[in-house]
DNA sequence: TCCTTAATGCAAATATATTTGCATTAAGGT
DNA sequence: ACCTTAATGCAAATATATTTGCATTAAGGA
């Protein structure tokens, strides 16, 4: 049988060094300042290879950002929904508040927006988070706890954290706490 | 006395035709598909002029998007905070749900993100909205109504609408209504 | 080990974006 | 009406980005 593709060995090595280069550059420069040539140099790879594999800087950066954002974060399981959501929101807030976290999230949005064809890709990126929300809510329901809807959690927790990151507003644990309290009906 | 600048006449005409061109292109193509040459052609202006005045497509598009987003929207004054907020959130939702509204908001984010130096500009763009929120809340306070904080309104109304727009999730009046109800402590 | 060929590197060719020099137009003041 | 010069247009020059052709390397299977 004849191999159609060769994802192992050198190919994998190239990819990982390219991803590392993008990651490094993204933490020091701003998204808009990256170009294929620079990434190729940093990765020690020919720029032509990058063009052949990804075609476009935005595509490459998007792929790197997605891989990073898709990484599963620990899903809290404390026994109470309030505590689960607080831990979860805090960890996201902390992550987004860090220079790298902020850079990757911004890079993701900046790389995904210019292409209308990526609407689906944008939603896909939310999937892992939504799955986590569902897991937490399901457990709460199993315990008989009253719980908000998935949409509410997206709107009241994720959305503010994301928006704050995009607009450069402070995003820390106290913000996360306030959002959770708001969501769970702490009243006025 | 000698004129340092000449903002009137031809200059103003050029600017307005360029802005119109960007607006038109932004509603038919996607942000990433615009370039100086195309804009110049559509506007009937030399591309060199655009380079001299704006230097970069992103800068130009950002300026157009900001001008549009900064346009004051009618500020509701119905006599009750709940109704004010509902009207206000609905009008924003409707605006963001329209192809042009969505395109301009996305263009603004996409153009502002790649430059780290524009963090302040991003926040500035929120100012008019925040001023409106303050106006509504102040009136509510004057009437003796209980009211949330400005931050809460930003987090619970603006953030969800913006995030939904960025991720391609539905954004309509019923969503706006749900958010307002949530914000005003409708409970679980 | 050997063979096929996917993946890469390199240099040159091409395309595209941006700048520059200079002539022309027309604000805006006298 | 006239003068100065900011703003523009146009063509050429330059820079940068992207593609292409071909040789080389090394997966991955036999």
List the helices and strands and how they pair.
The structure is a homodimer of 188-residue chains.
Chain A: H1 9-28, H2 36-43, H3 47-54, H4 57-70, H5 81-97, H6 99-112, H7 119-142, H8 150-167, H9 173-183
The first copy, chain A, binds a DNA duplex (30 and 30 nucleotides) through α1 and α3.
| Regions with little confidence, pLDDT below 50 for 5+ residues of chain A | none
Percent of residues in helices of chain A: over 70%
SSE class of chain A? mainly alpha
Number of strands of chain A: 0
- Please tally the helical runs of chain A, counting DSSP H or I stretches of 4 or more residues: 9
Q: Main sheet of chain A?
A: none
Which geometry of chain A do the CA atoms define?
A: elongated
Would you give an account of this structure?
The structure is a homodimer of 188-residue chains. Chain A has helices at residues 9-28, 36-43, 47-54, 57-70, 81-97, 99-112, 119-142, 150-167, 173-183. The radius of gyration of chain A is 19 Å and the shape is elongated. Chain A is mainly alpha-helical and 188 residues long. In chain A, helix 1 packs across helix 2 and helix 5 (81-97) runs parallel beside helix 8. In chain A, 35% of the residues are buried. The N and C termini of chain A lie far apart (68 Å). The A-B interface holds A 30-33, 58, 106, 109-110, 113-116, 119-120, 122-123, 125-126, 146, 148, 151-152, 154-156, 158-160, 162-164, 166-169, 178-179, 182, 185, 187-188 and B 30-33, 58, 106, 109-110, 113-116, 119-120, 122-123, 125-126, 146, 148, 151-152, 154-156, 158-160, 162-164, 166-169, 178-179, 182, 185, 187-188. The structure holds a DNA duplex (30 and 30 nucleotides).
